[in-house]
């Protein structure tokens, strides 16, 4: 297992990725993959709307990049850091790529597949079971998402008001 | 729901994709995505080893292609055909992209996420629930996989024998 300092360092990098998503108007979720020497071999942020592609989640992008970097579909001995609990697709990709350890931030009560809705990491029949550590910097991670959606709602309200003003001449 | 003829036609196309995988030494799994007018908007076959990428499953490739074709991450009113029951990653991608109907061939007792190991399509809390029809041409689909693995084992046996013969001079 990683030290507290290492976990902090890598989660910060995942947050940096989430900020890149936010800067482009995407739901702020970021992920990174680290090899067993501590090298960052994959980075990704949510690009679903930017790319109009439902598979462009932060984790999937980071995993694909890590596979290409390692020239292997097996990410044995690698760790994945992500600011939000993985969904089923991303949890499945983590299992498929044999990632050793998963560290995630906020819990996702709507789609979380690491315990919040289902837990794919503990299904006995699956051929790989990563170690999973949830709730890392969860307040910061949750606040980032809440503040993003708050801003979206405020913008929508402003647009509504401005269009009403136009209608009223 | 589609007619018997339509289902046969689209499953045949999924099998064609699976054959493309087999021709390149990959586990033969193929998938296609069809829009609500019956146009094939995504095709894919398993390329995990070819691309050394754990996310390169048939379904994911077909979904990504369909998203690009539609210029939308939402594949509402689309159907996905695949020769093997989707794994968690692919079932998650199907949910994320709001695919309406899923037709699959062989059951996967080791990793199937449409009922064989877990059933992600019936999890109440998830925000999308496709209609799922499993076991379509399941004997043909299962035989294709069995025959592939039989050939692999035979090749390995031959290689072992030939190396033993060399060792014996």
TrEMBL record, chains A, B:
Its EC number is 3.5.4.33. CDD domains: nucleoside_deaminase. It catalyses: adenosine(34) in tRNA + H2O + H(+) = inosine(34) in tRNA + NH4(+). It comes from the Bacteria. The active site is at 59 (proton donor). Zn(2+) binds at residues 57, 87, 90. InterPro entries: APOBEC/CMP_deaminase_Zn-bd, CMP_dCMP_dom, Cytidine_deaminase-like, MafB19-deam, tRNA_aden_deaminase. Pfam families: MafB19-deam. One of its GO terms (biological process) is tRNA wobble adenosine to inosine editing. Binds 1 zinc ion per subunit. GO terms for molecular function: tRNA-specific adenosine-34 deaminase activity; zinc ion binding. Homodimer. Belongs to the cytidine and deoxycytidylate deaminase family. ADAT2 subfamily. Catalyzes the deamination of adenosine to inosine at the wobble position 34 of tRNA(Arg2). This is tRNA-specific adenosine deaminase.
């Amino acid at each position: 297992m990683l030290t507290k300092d290492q976990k902090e360092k890598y989660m910060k990098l995942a947050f940096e990725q989430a900020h890149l998503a936010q800067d482009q108007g995407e739901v702020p979720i970021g992920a990174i993959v680290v090899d067993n020497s501590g090298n960052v071999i994959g980075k990704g942020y949510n690009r679903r709307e930017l790319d109009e592609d439902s598979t462009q989640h932060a984790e999937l992008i980071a995993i694909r990049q890590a596979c290409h970097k390692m020239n292997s579909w097996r990410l044995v001995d690698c760790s994945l850091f992500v600011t939000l609990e993985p969904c089923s697709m991303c949890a499945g990709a983590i299992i498929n790529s044999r990632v050793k350890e998963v560290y995630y931030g906020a819990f996702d009560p709507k789609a979380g597949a690491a315990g919040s809705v289902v837990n794919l990491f503990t299904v006995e029949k699956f051929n790989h079971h990563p170690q999973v550590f949830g709730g890392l910097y969860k307040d910061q991670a949750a606040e980032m998402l809440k503040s993003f959606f708050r801003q979206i709602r405020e913008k929508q309200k402003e647009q509504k008001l401005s269009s009403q003003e136009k209608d009223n001449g």
